[in-house]
Amino acid sequence: MKPDDPLLKILACPIDKGPLHLLPEEAGGEEALYNPRLHRRYPITDGIPQLLPSSGQQVPDDEHEELLKRMAP
Fold first, then answer.
1. Total-model pTM
2. Alpha helical stretches, state H, 4-60
3. Per the CB 3.0–4.6 Å rule, which of 15, 33, 54, 68 could disulfide with 20?
């Protein structure tokens, strides 16, 4: 998924219905969508966002801080 993909503007967190932020692949990790309000990451598998509430992973506080730095412009 690309940062300018129009799909990103309409995708929303399945829990709080707020916007999600794209986390590009990094160092062997997978691409994901992130909700910084709830500290939840949703994987993107084969280009398809997995947006079921059960597919989201809770992110610990220290990792959350790192993700916020990656999201900053």
1. 0.86
2. 7-10
3. 33
C-alpha closest to that of 33 among 18, 41, 8, 11: 41
Both structure tokens of 60: 């610990």
Query: Around Cβ 6, how many Cβ atoms within 10 Å?
Result: 7
Task: Please report, as a single letter, which amino acid is at residue 53.
Answer: P
Query: Residues with Cβ < 8 Å from 50, sequence gap 6 or more?
Result: 42, 43, 44
Calpha distance 62→65 (Å, rounded): 5
b/e per residue 21-41 (b: at least 16 CB within 10 A): bbbeeeeeeeebbbbbeebbb
pLDDT in tens, 53-72: 999 999 999 999 988 887 76
Please give the Cα distance from 43 to 49 (Å, whole number). 6
